[in-house]
């Protein structure tokens, strides 16, 4: 089954995502982190199919996270999940090859289903 | 006859000198001086007087054995007999001087048998000059002298006309210069006002641009601050619609998170309002 990592410093968002994902398929393995450093440290071990990544976080923000992945040649597929509607952020996210999409919170159920079902393979 | 020709020839020479001298005159005083020196060689007189008018300028030239005087005034100042000459426009001759009410310096001893000649010499329709000669037994003026008198009068009129025109030109030039000075002064004033305005406008524009940038920044920041808890609330509401929830589940899992998010939203909004109010106060100051 698919392995999914959630990185958001706000527990409520992770709760929303976990609940939504389980609703789509209860069998998916979801690992949620409110601490981005811990999430990054666990990446290799989990080897996720999909990462949902928040941008605005303390210590290591979403951009740092992406750059670290780039530095360590980690190719996991990333969906940016942010409450920011900033066009600048959207443009910047395109500079990372492993970023599949820029999503604005909250993600509608249909869109989430689409992402989880169609996009199974790693980038 | 030969003697008369001789006299004429001398007179012409005298007139030629007078004429040359008059031509060179550039002021009224010079004209008076020219007459004082030259007139006595052209004909005899006790008093020669010429009155000229142009616009509101009245000139009176008076030559006697003792001197020459020219006055310039803004009021006519005609003598009674001059008014008659102007009125009738014909040459006149008086031998009874009592009735003319002449000024004191016109008075001659009885044995002199004074007589007064007067003319209105017309140079053209608009230009004329009143001339008069007071003569007597020791200073005999005859009809033969009239030819030269008229030549003198015409020359004098032409010269006074010229000097008046020069004076008017001079006055006009002065007025123009004054107008020019005023315009120049105003221009300088306007230029300095405009430069100042430009400076003010530049300053204000810079100020406004800075304020705009700050406001834009604040509004973007505000939107993000507000949107974060709001997107949580929307996400939680979506969850409620996603599937059936038991009352227990809702109470335990959804409501506390909804409350927290709503409180965060309220906090964010209060912060935004506070910041915006502070900015508004700063902008108005």
Helices and strands, with pairings:
The complex is a heterodimer of chains A (123) and B (285).
Chain A: E1 3-7, H1 11-24, E2 29-33, H2 36-46, E3 50-53, H3 62-71, E4 77-82, H4 87-93, E5 99-104, H5 109-118
Parallel strand pairs in A: 1-2, 1-3, 3-4, 4-5
Chain B: H1 2-23, H2 28-38, E1 47-54, E2 57-64, E3 67-73, H3 80-88, E4 92-94, E5 115-122, E6 128-135, H4 146-242, H5 247-284
Antiparallel strand pairs in B: 1-2, 1-6, 2-3, 4-5, 5-6
Describe what you observe in this structure.
The model of chain A has no long low-confidence stretch (mean pLDDT 91). The two termini of chain A are 17 Å apart. Chain A has 123 residues and is α/β, with parallel strands linked by helices. In chain A, 42% of the residues lie in helices and 21% in strands. Chain A has a five-stranded parallel β-sheet, with helices on both faces. Chain A has one domain (3-118): Rossmann fold (3-Layer(aba) Sandwich), CATH 3.40.50. Chain A contains five helices and five strands. Chain B is of the alpha+beta class. The radius of gyration of chain B is 50 Å and the shape is rod-shaped. In chain B, strands 3-2-1-6-5-4 form a six-stranded antiparallel β-sheet, sandwiched between helices. The longest helix of chain B has 97 residues, at 146-242. Chain B folds into two domains: 2-176, Beta-Lactamase; 207-284, Helix Hairpins (Orthogonal Bundle), CATH 1.10.287. In chain B, helix 1 packs antiparallel against helix 2. Chain B starts with a helix and ends with a helix. Chains A and B meet through helix 1 of A and helix 4 and helix 5 of B.
Keywords:
A: 123 residues; alpha/beta; Rossmann fold; 42% helix; B: 285 residues; alpha+beta; Beta-Lactamase; six-stranded antiparallel sheet; 6 strands
Instruction: Catalogue the unreliable spans of chain A.
Output: none
CATH class of the largest domain in chain B: Alpha Beta
Number of domains of chain A: 1
CATH topology of chain A: Rossmann fold
Main beta-sheet strand count, sense and barrel state of chain A: 5 strands, parallel
Number of strands of chain A: 5
The CATH architecture term of the largest domain in chain B is: 2-Layer Sandwich
How far is it from the N-terminal to the C-terminal residue of chain A, by CA?
17 Å
* Strand arrangement across the biggest beta sheet of chain A: 2-1-3-4-5
* Relevant CATH superfamily of chain A: Response regulator
Biggest sheet details of chain B? 6 strands, antiparallel
Radius of gyration of chain B equals: 50 Å
H/I helix tally of chain B: 5
Q: Per the principal axes of the C-alpha atoms, what is the gross shape of chain B?
A: rod-shaped
- Indicate the proportion of strand residues of chain A: 15-25%
The tally of beta strands of chain B, per DSSP, is: 6
What is the CATH T-level topology of the largest domain in chain B?
A: Beta-Lactamase
């Amino acid at each position: 089954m698919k392995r999914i990592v959630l990185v958001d410093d706000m527990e409520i968002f992770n709760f929303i995502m976990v609940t939504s994902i389980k609703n789509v398929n209860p069998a998916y393995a979801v690992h949620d982190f409110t601490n981005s450093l811990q999430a990054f440290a666990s990446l290799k071990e989990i080897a996720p199919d999909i990462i949902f990544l928040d941008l605005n976080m303390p210590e290591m923000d979403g951009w740092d996270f992406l750059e670290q992945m780039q530095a360590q040649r980690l190719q996991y597929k990333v969906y940016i999940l942010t409450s920011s509607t900033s066009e600048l952020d959207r443009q910047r996210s395109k500079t990372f090859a492993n970023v599949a999409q820029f999503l604005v919170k909250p993600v509608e159920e249909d869109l989430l289903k689409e992402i989880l079902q169609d996009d199974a393979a790693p980038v | 006859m030969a003697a008369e020709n001789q006299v004429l020839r001398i007179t012409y020479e005298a007139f030629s000198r007078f004429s040359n001298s008059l031509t060179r005159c550039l002021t009224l005083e010079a004209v008076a001086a020219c007459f004082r020196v030259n007139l006595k060689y052209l004909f005899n007189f006790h008093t020669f007087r010429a009155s000229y008018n142009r616009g509101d300028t009245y000139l009176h030239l008076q030559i006697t054995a003792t001197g020459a005087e020219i006055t310039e005034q803004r009021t006519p100042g005609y003598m009674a007999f001059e008014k008659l000459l102007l009125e009738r426009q014909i040459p006149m001759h008086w031998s009874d001087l009592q009735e003319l009410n002449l000024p004191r310096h016109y008075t001659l001893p009885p044995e002199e048998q004074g007589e007064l000649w007067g003319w209105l010499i017309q140079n053209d329709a608009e230009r004329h000059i009143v001339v008069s000669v007071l003569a007597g037994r020791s200073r005999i003026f005859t009809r033969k002298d009239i030819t030269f008198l008229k030549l003198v009068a015409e020359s004098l009129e032409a010269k006074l006309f010229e000097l008046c025109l020069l004076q008017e030109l001079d006055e006009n030039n002065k007025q123009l210069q004054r107008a020019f000075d005023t315009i120049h002064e105003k221009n300088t004033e306007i230029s300095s006002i405009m430069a100042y305005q430009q400076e003010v406008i530049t300053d204000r524009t810079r100020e406004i641009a800075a304020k705009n940038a700050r406001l834009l920044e604040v509004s973007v920041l505000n939107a993000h601050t507000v949107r974060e808890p709001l997107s949580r609330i929307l996400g939680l509401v979506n969850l409620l619609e996603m599937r059936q929830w038991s009352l227990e589940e809702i109470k335990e899992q959804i409501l506390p998170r909804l409350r927290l998010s709503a409180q965060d939203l309220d906090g964010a909004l209060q912060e935004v309002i506070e910041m915006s109010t502070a900015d508004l106060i700063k902008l108005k100051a």
